[in-house]
Amino acid sequence: METPSILIDMKKKRIRIHKNSLKYLKNPKYVYLLINPNKKFIAIQRCDKKKRDAIKVTYSSEKDCEIYSYGLLEQMAQLEHSLNEQSSFKLYGHPYNNEIIEFNIIYPITVPKG
Question: What pTM did the predictor assign?
Answer without folding.
Answer: 0.89
